[in-house]
Design goal:
The protein is about 30% helix and about 20% strand. The protein has helices at about 20-25, 30-45, 65-75, 115-125, 180-185, 220-230, 245-255, 270-280, 340-345, 345-360, 380-390, 415-420, 435-440, 445-450, and strands spanning about 50-55, 85, 95-100, 110-115, 130, 135, 145-150, 170-175, 195-200, 215, 235-240, 260-265, 285-290, 315-320, 360-370, 395, 420-425, 455-465. Strands 11, 12, 13, 14, 15, 16, 17 and 18 form an 8-stranded mixed beta sheet that branches. A 6-stranded mixed beta sheet has the order 5-9-8-7-4-6, with helices on one face. A hairpin with a 6-residue loop joins strand 2 (about 85) and strand 3 (about 95-100). The radius of gyration is 23 Å and the shape is globular. About 45% of the residues are buried.
């Protein structure tokens, strides 16, 4: 696989963070090594992963059937380019599609559109530009114009501006679906595609209305974590922080929709999304509730809430706690807008949720804790705290084991670190991917790259061996 190392995306400053911040993230290393590792991490985070990952809804369709349908769609979108679709050998319901890029010979146009950071991140992963994401457009932009699209990574462009000279990152070219006047006409907010990307810097399959009942766009580690949970038909399982429902629906699919999957989230719009996804994927075992997970444990028997939160202690066979976190593993992220205050604010909430989860878990039950961040404080330190706070818990080996072992620095033993899974983008090679290199690549090399060049993520698996001791 002949590939060329990438450089940082033009316009993204990788070293604006403080040394204290980098040491907090990778505190097991010395100062010089921490600085180097942190700069490498920010570089990786500014680029999308090398593969788009989709999970097949095996409850409704076979993997091979969906793979064939996806191949037809890929040929249509990529104008016949030969791009493989790989089935992951250790995650049989996961398909991997290489991302082509970054492509360097795209001609920048005089007509420009500026989009917000979130919209820009989505474009780097294959999305078109939706109207709400457009912040600014050239004063002469008309429907049908070829437009160069840029991301306002510092959030300084004013809505409706006719030009912008601030820091911006080139995302590629597209065809405007509306004129500037139509986009910024002051009428109720428009929806739908505003710019259809035709020459993106990263060429990635667009999944807009593509097989919505048969597949779910999901990052590789997010699919791994549900397999680690290993849900079984007939069990009662809790997804404590469930939105938007990717892992919830995966749990139900692995159970063949037999059993009960309870999904909680404290925001009603997110719960609505969980229910929509369950309906779309044809899954009936999911019950979603708008409820604060920190209050999910029933403390008295006065009110009957049978089947609804809060729940009695020791009610669930397995619990997934995909905890709220700093998100310092999400890719691409060109803004790097984290603050030390924000980074240190999640640990108490994570521990509160974890404590509730332990009490809701049956003896012999499985608790899986995960985050989409790479900080020591939100991952290994939480594991060390949990093993001390709850003697009934014991770390378990994980299957499949695709990520690396845990990071030193939290006082865990070598054996305990080996039982964790850490997906760390800073250790992954970052490469140009083009059609020629794909032709020459071996499948095993591409799988190895997909396993490493993904979002930052962390997984710990516990078994509860006895009931919680009562405080004296």
């Amino acid at each position: 696989m002949q590939l060329i190392p990438l450089k940082p995306i033009e316009g993204v400053n990788l070293v604006e963070k403080t040394m204290d911040f980098s040491l907090m993230v990778v505190s097991a290393f010395g100062k010089q090594e921490a600085e180097r590792k942190f700069e490498t991490l920010l570089n990786r985070l500014s680029h999308p992963p090398s593969f788009t990952t989709v999970r097949v809804n095996t409850y409704l369709a076979s993997v091979q059937c969906v793979k064939n349908l996806l191949f037809d769609e890929l040929q249509k979108q990529f104008n016949g380019l030969s791009v493989p679709i790989l089935q992951h050998p250790d995650l049989q319901d996961v398909l991997l599609i290489p991302v082509i890029g970054p492509r360097k010979n795209i001609k920048k146009q005089q007509c420009e559109a500026i989009v917000g950071t979130q919209c820009g991140n989505a474009v780097l992963r294959g999305a078109h530009v939706y109207i709400p994401g457009i912040v600014s457009a050239s004063k002469f932009m008309k429907a049908g114009d070829v437009v160069s699209v840029y991301s306002d990574i510092e959030g300084k462009c004013k809505k409706g501006a006719k030009e912008f000279d601030g820091t911006k990152v080139f995302l590629g070219n597209g065809i405007s679906q509306l004129s500037r006047k139509e986009i910024f006409n002051g009428l109720p907010e428009l929806k739908g595609i505003g710019i259809r990307m035709t020459e993106p810097v990263y060429l990635s399959l667009s999944f807009d209305n593509v097989l919505p009942s048969y597949l779910f766009l999901q990052n590789l580690p997010s699919a791994v974590v549900t397999h680690v949970l290993d849900p079984q038909p007939g069990e009662k399982i809790l997804d404590l922080c469930a939105a938007p429902g990717g892992k919830t629906t995966h749990i139900a699919a692995l159970m063949h929709d037999q059993g009960e999957v309870i999904a909680l989230d404290k925001l009603s719009n997110k719960v609505k999304k969980i229910k929509q996804n369950a309906l779309l994927l044809g899954l009936n075992s999911i019950k979603a509730f708008c409820f604060d997970g920190t209050k999910a444990l029933k403390l008295d028997m006065v009110k009957d809430t049978e089947g609804e939160p809060p729940f009695l202690a020791e009610s669930f066979d397995r619990i997934l706690l995909d905890a709220p976190c700093s998100g310092m593993g999400q890719r691409p992220n060109m803004a790097c807008s984290w603050t030390l205050k924000e980074m240190t604010s999640y640990q108490p909430l994570q521990r509160k949720l974890f404590s509730v989860a332990v009490r809701l878990l049956k003896p012999g039950g499985v608790l899986v804790y995960s985050t989409c961040t790479i900080t020591l404080a939100e991952n290994e330190e939480q594991v060390a705290w949990a093993l001390t706070a709850f003697p009934c818990l014991q770390l378990q080996p994980q299957e499949p084991q695709i990520g690396g072992e845990g990071m030193m620095g939290a006082g865990l033993s070598v054996e305990q670190l080996q039982q964790l899974q850490r997906f760390d983008p800073s250790v992954a090679p970052l490469w140009d991917m083009d059609v020629d290199s794909l032709r020459e690549a071996r499948v095993e090399d591409m799988i190895r790259l997909a396993n490493k060049d993904c979002i930052g993520f962390f997984i710990a698996k516990f078994v509860k061996y006895k009931g919680i001791r009562k405080d004296p």
